[in-house]
Amino acid sequence: MSDDNYTVNCDTHGESGGAFICQHLVNDSEKLGFYLGYDPERPDSLHPDAWCGECEVVLNREGEWNDVATAFADIKIVCGKCYENIRDKNWLEDAEIVNTLLADCREYLEKKQPKLVEQFKLDVHERWDWDQTTGKLIFSHDGEPQVVASVQFAGSFSTETNTWMWAWANESLDDNIKSGSKVVRDIGQQRGYRKLAAGHWPADVVDAWEMTAVLAKHIDAIGFYRTPSDNGFLYMAITDAVWVVRS
Ligand SMILES: [Zn+2]
Ligand SMILES: [Zn+2]
Fold first, then answer.
1. Residue 247 CA to ligand 2 centre (angstroms)
2. From the CA of 149, how far away is ligand 2's center (Å)?
3. Domain coordinates of the chain in residue numbers?
4. pLDDT tens track for 3-26
5. What ligand has the least distance to the C-alpha of 79?
């Protein structure tokens, strides 16, 4: 099943690619559980096939998507935005464990960031440029590079839609600068943490910073940087940096 091959005309959101969910995960459902069928051939899909907790029980009992499990789930197609709303209302996770993880990551980045800013004077350089191909963020002054940093992109925060999108879900970014975000995604998928596993969700700037902190901690970054984009900000974790200014 592939969301690119099906178009849905949603009464609320208009026409877009469809996503597949079980019959129980309808628009007004809540806290039913949200189990995902990750497709190894489409790891960057924003909307993997999903089913509820009861369907998961049936699936585990049957051992595979046989006739019984398939009939019970009676998969429906919805639009991508409806899918995300339904996902966020039905996803079940241990909030305490997730909050502890996020607090650890925030603490990690809060400790690292002041040192990075001070050592490389990140707040005083005239301009910055990033290069996807090399994975470098270059700070310069009077046309001369001063500091060259290696970066991994965390994702982007849109001030238009107030949403976060992980770098791995952003097709316009090169693979080499989003491998770190895939590490975070894997952790989210394995442990069932929504903010880490889901590619695109309603967020504020604190969420954006927090997700960058999660990436930073898991790839041993030395800090982060944020650059303005067309409709918000791009967040990246810095894994190393050097002064390159000529003496
Ligand atoms: Zn179900
Ligand atoms: Zn919709």
1. 58
2. 41
3. 3-90, 95-243
4. 556 899 999 999 989 999 999 998
5. 2
